Amino acid sequence: MPVLKPQSVLDGHSSNRTPVPLIVGLVVSGVCLLLAVGFYLLTGGPVNVGVGTLLALPTAIVLVALILLVDRLEPEPRVNLVLSFGWGAGVAIIGALIVNSVTGALLLPSVGQVAADGITASVVAPVVEESFKGALLLYLLLVRRHEIDGPTDGIVYASMCGLGFAMVENVLYYMRGIDDGSLAFMVLLRGVISPLGHPLYTSIIGLGVAYAATHSGPGRVFAVIGGWIGGVLLHALWNGSLTLLGFQGMVIAYGVELLVLIVLVVVLIKDRRRLVRLIGRYLPAYIPSGLVQPNDVQMLSSMSGRRQARHWARAQAGNTGVRAMGDYQLAATELALLHSHAEKSTIAPHQFFARREAILALMRMARDAFFRRMPQPPPPPWAHEQPSGFFKIPAELKEMPTHKLRAQISPVGPRPPQAQVTQRLQPPAGQRPPAAMPPRQQPPAGPPQQPPAGQPPQQPPLGHRPPGRPPQPPGPQGPRPGGPWPPR
């Protein structure tokens, strides 16, 4: 079996090949984009299409760069970002063109041209366009759920999809502006005043999808539906205000969208702080293994520390060194996010162990690649003459932490507290804990008995298993202190 490339490990792929569903999505998006371009050429001519494209590109380029800037701490797979942009620019555009045009034609005989245009723009278009764009996010939730680690990921994917849609739609509006003499107004409105419209609408759906990807339970469904409703309402507010109230309506809608933008910025800031806290929360448990050291955790918890480490690696080992340091940093971040998924029971134990082994292997590969290029580097500046996990990764990692699983709720009595469990090695192949305890081993009802006053609590004997947990397979040194079992 070929060794996985670093990017394949970071992207969570089981091979170095691009997954077939992503390839199919890119092909479908490209075909739909070609159909949209063909429609533009037939209705507006090549000159108008060229001018409209040149006017729409600068806004799209600037906003894509902004999104990539937001996505720096834990970057999403590039192929996923390309698919998101292409889906918005191709599938969502061609779908919206067809449905909106057919709906307007059906309304025309009964309500007239003006009313048909108003209903289509204010009611039909928001529902149709947000549904087509939201379909991409739903696909990521169902098929690539492990790649959505929080609100930032949902906003990034949604914004890329919305930007693709907005860029191609702007070309159409600029073509119309050339024909009716309103080109300057259209460029000002869509390219300067409200370039973030479609990314904002779809980002609300992205927040709902991100919640569903990082939580379990029936609330996931309501989060997705609520995000879709929020995106549709905000889109309808903008279109309806412009159609019914003109300039005054635009001012009102613009104020609301500005508030939504501020809320999204706050969400992004809080989510970045959450990710930093995850690094500080989960990685210290790996200090006894030698994988990281306290100074490494501090370096990984700040963008400035990461940047300083990469600059040092480049100065010592050139491009090889900076790539190795970047892989080490991203793998450490993915390790913290992996534990967060495990704690929320959004990943199965066997997937947790397989993913963790791949991440640890990548960290070792990064370290080895650096030292092949620079066998005796000087002490790194972030370590302050102290040991660093980047330099002292052991050949075998033992006593590494694993899930923090939810404890079972007894039929009667209070819920027992959660307990952090550890495991010495990965479970032996072919051995799985039983799905449930035998009836005779069920914990007694009611709260646990307390020892008499003045007596210390009794310590559990070796191999003791807390009530409510299935027995674990024995390890090489005898009974394990804990281990993986199916989430409840």
UniProtKB/TrEMBL annotation:
<feature type="transmembrane region" description="Helical">
    <location>
        <begin position="49"/>
        <end position="69"/>
    </location>
</feature>
<feature type="transmembrane region" description="Helical">
    <location>
        <begin position="221"/>
        <end position="238"/>
    </location>
</feature>
<feature type="transmembrane region" description="Helical">
    <location>
        <begin position="81"/>
        <end position="99"/>
    </location>
</feature>
<dbReference type="GO" id="GO:0008233">
    <property type="term" value="F:peptidase activity"/>
</dbReference>
<feature type="compositionally biased region" description="Low complexity">
    <location>
        <begin position="423"/>
        <end position="434"/>
    </location>
</feature>
<keyword id="KW-0472">Membrane</keyword>
<feature type="compositionally biased region" description="Pro residues">
    <location>
        <begin position="435"/>
        <end position="488"/>
    </location>
</feature>
<feature type="transmembrane region" description="Helical">
    <location>
        <begin position="196"/>
        <end position="214"/>
    </location>
</feature>
<dbReference type="Pfam" id="PF13367">
    <property type="entry name" value="PrsW-protease"/>
</dbReference>
<protein>
    <submittedName>
        <fullName>Membrane proteinase PrsW, cleaves anti-sigma factor RsiW, M82 family</fullName>
    </submittedName>
</protein>
<feature type="transmembrane region" description="Helical">
    <location>
        <begin position="244"/>
        <end position="269"/>
    </location>
</feature>
<feature type="region of interest" description="Disordered">
    <location>
        <begin position="408"/>
        <end position="488"/>
    </location>
</feature>
<feature type="transmembrane region" description="Helical">
    <location>
        <begin position="20"/>
        <end position="43"/>
    </location>
</feature>
<dbReference type="InterPro" id="IPR026898">
    <property type="entry name" value="PrsW"/>
</dbReference>
<keyword id="KW-1133">Transmembrane helix</keyword>
<keyword id="KW-0812">Transmembrane</keyword>
<feature type="transmembrane region" description="Helical">
    <location>
        <begin position="154"/>
        <end position="176"/>
    </location>
</feature>
